[in-house]
Amino acid sequence: SPYEMILVERQGPAGLIRLNRPKALNALCDQLTAELADALAALDADPAVAAIILTGNEKAFAAGADIREMQDRAFPATYMKDFVAPWEAVLSVRKPVIAAVAGFALGGGCELAMMCDLILAADSARFGQPEINLGIIPGAGGSQRLTRAIGKSKAMEMVLTGRMMSAEEADRAGLVARVVPAAELIPEAVKMAEKIATLSPPAVAMAKEAVNAAFELPLREGVRLERRFFLSLFGTPDQKEGMAAFLEKRPAAFKG
Ligand code: HXC
């Protein structure tokens, strides 16, 4: 493997990326984020991969940006070379990206999980934005994505005080899709990828883009985007196949 801080493997149609800096609780240093960006692009380009799973280990998804590496950074060098920008590689992936979170997802770790298309949480997951304890604030979208995910008061409390949220609270607040027993985390994420692998790839890609657009666009523009995608899918053989299969009471064989 060309990587030192991540592990990449295939599990059926899923491309699995495991953050692998256990001694530092997967703190997101420059090398790790560069490796992650590279692996995401490679899996996105691999036609055998239907969805990508991003995970850590039992103790931590990621405990944030690497504090040791950040300690001596200074302005304006930080502004001239934005070290956070490479983290956003996950936003340009066209296939679904599932964050499978066990243990700590703190600071940049929570932000990275929120940049994924959905979060599947183990019952051991803990989410937080503790940057305020370090004299900084979230820098990779936490103040924005957390607020949109769980609302102003809860997000404000977490960002202002650094309080962590349990998996159960995150589930109630709508931050995560589902909570599963820790031992089931990867199997459940792989099951999701397996289901996605049976579907029409252009429909999956447009579904992902449409839902993500809800975070960016006013309602009317979002609905217009959805409508254009929806109507354009009637130009795909997969729409004919999907509807014929339903009416003939047989499984669909989508070709993409
Ligand atoms: C560098 C980290 C780290 C981090 C943990 N470690 N988090 N190193 N950056 N973010 C290291 C510790 O220094 C320690 O190394 C080892 O991992 C194990 O951590 P412990 O603290 O000993 O573990 P524990 O007592 O179990 O506590 C777990 C913890 C705590 C509660 C998660 O580690 C913690 O509070 N971590 C920092 C969380 C945080 O503040 N995150 C936000 C970072 S700022 P040694 O060498 O001592 O064994 C951020 C900004 C993002 O993310 C903005 C966009 C870039």
Provide a descriptive summary of the structure in words.
Helices cover 43% and strands 16% of the residues. The chain is built from eleven helices and ten strands. The protein has a six-stranded mixed beta sheet with strand order 1-2-3-5-7-10, sandwiched between helices. The longest helix has 16 residues, at 30-45. The two termini are 30 Å apart. Hexanoyl-coenzyme A binds at residues 24-25, 27, 63-68, 84, 104, 106-108, 130-131, 134, 138-140. Could possibly oxidize fatty acids using specific components. Keywords: Fatty acid metabolism, Lipid metabolism, Lyase.
Overall shape: it is: globular
- Lateral strand order in the biggest sheet: 1-2-3-5-7-10
- Tally of DSSP helical segments: 11
> How confident is the prediction overall: mean pLDDT?
97
Got a strand count?
10
Ligand inventory reads:
hexanoyl-coenzyme A
Percent strand equals: 15-25%
The low-pLDDT segments are none
Helix content: 40-55%
**Kindly, what is the distance between the CA atoms of the first and last residues, rounded to a whole number of angstroms?**
30 Å
Q: How large is the radius of gyration? A: 19 Å
Q: Give the class from helix and strand content and strand pairing.
A: alpha/beta
What about the largest sheet? 6 strands, mixed
* N to C succession of SSEs: EEHEEHHEEHEEHHEHEHHHH
InterPro entries: ClpP/crotonase-like_dom_sf (IPR029045), Enoyl-CoA_hyd/isom_CS (IPR018376), Enoyl-CoA_hydra/iso (IPR001753), Enoyl-CoA_hydra_C (IPR014748)
Organism: Teichococcus oryzae
GO molecular function: 3-hydroxyacyl-CoA dehydratase activity
EC number: 4.2.1.17
